[in-house]
User: Which sequence fits this backbone?
């Protein structure tokens, strides 16, 4: 069934997130890599992020059927001393029945234009290396009049976890959001692109997002470290559960304290089978090496687009979540 773009209707915000989750699952099942299971609760949590600017989630419908959509939420960063509000664009999906008709390119261009109109300074997105989405999203961003720059390559570490029947990720959240803000601010000047949190954003990350998990400590001179992330299922027959580690803020701790903090986090996530860590070079990596984390085959390209068209530097480190 071939449908031209004139037969589709654009809406500014995707409607039924349950439908969006089902479309995403069917579409992403065609990818060669194992997808994560993004359910409606996760999408709703993402779009409720309390950023400085509103979330954006445009969609294309054909005869009331969801054909394509993309979601974006605000991430405020410091880059070369400048404070920027970026739209983190993710969950880019075209329904299987509508692929090959240019709808993905169209919805991406619309989202970039909406971000600019909403007052964003630019957009940030990730694509799996080798996936066709790299070409589609770059071409769509250029159609909007801007140049996406590949600024970083994200690789991953992973480790299988011991199982526990008594520990729950949902019950283990205990880190202080003020520590997340303070430790993140301390990275400015040493990490090239650094996430800048409000207290409300930190509270969302540690307690209000979908399935958060965090630990804090030990406390040398009242300056504890912090590790946090979230758990979710992989879309496989076994319902394998994994924890994604977003924040490892421990550079000021001793090597022994760093390892102890990571071990505590691993125990708190023991209802997951796998712990996954994106390598962004903002955190000391020795604890992962000591605890026998292994390199994953998954690699992402990170693309940054700025609407001012200022020169965008290549990054050797960044502190921001990867979705």
Assistant:
């Amino acid at each position: 069934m071939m449908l031209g773009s004139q037969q589709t209707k654009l809406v500014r915000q995707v409607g039924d997130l349950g439908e969006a989750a089902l479309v995403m699952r069917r579409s992403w099942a065609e990818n060669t890599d194992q997808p994560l299971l993004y359910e409606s609760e996760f999408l709703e949590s993402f779009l409720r992020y309390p950023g400085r600017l509103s979330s954006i989630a445009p969609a294309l419908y054909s005869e009331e059927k969801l054909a394509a959509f993309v979601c974006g939420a605000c991430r405020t960063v410091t880059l070369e001393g400048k404070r920027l509000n970026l739209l983190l664009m993710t969950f880019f999906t075209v329904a299987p029945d509508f692929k090959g008709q240019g709808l993905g390119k169209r919805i991406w261009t619309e989202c970039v234009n909406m971000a600019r109109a909403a007052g964003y300074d630019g957009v940030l997105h990730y694509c799996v290396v080798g996936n066709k989405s790299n070409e589609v999203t770059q071409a769509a961003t250029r159609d909007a009049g801007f140049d996406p720059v590949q600024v970083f390559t994200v690789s991953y570490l992973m480790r299988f976890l011991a199982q526990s029947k008594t520990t729950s990720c949902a019950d283990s959240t205990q880190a202080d959001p003020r520590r997340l803000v303070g430790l993140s601010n301390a990275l400015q000047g040493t990490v090239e692109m650094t996430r800048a949190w409000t207290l409300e954003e930190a509270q969302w990350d540690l307690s209000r997002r979908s399935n958060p998990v965090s630990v804090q400590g030990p406390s040398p001179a009242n300056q504890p470290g912090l590790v946090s992330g979230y758990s979710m299922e992989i879309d496989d027959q076994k319902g394998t559960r994994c924890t994604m580690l977003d924040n490892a803020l421990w550079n000021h701790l001793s090597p022994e304290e760093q390892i102890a903090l990571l071990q505590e986090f691993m125990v708190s996530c023991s209802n997951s089978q796998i712990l996954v860590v994106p390598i962004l070079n903002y955190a000391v990596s020795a604890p992962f090496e000591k605890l026998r984390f292994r390199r994953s085959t998954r690699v992402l390209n990170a693309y940054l687009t700025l609407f001012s068209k200022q020169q965008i530097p290549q990054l050797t480190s960044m502190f921001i979540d990867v979705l």
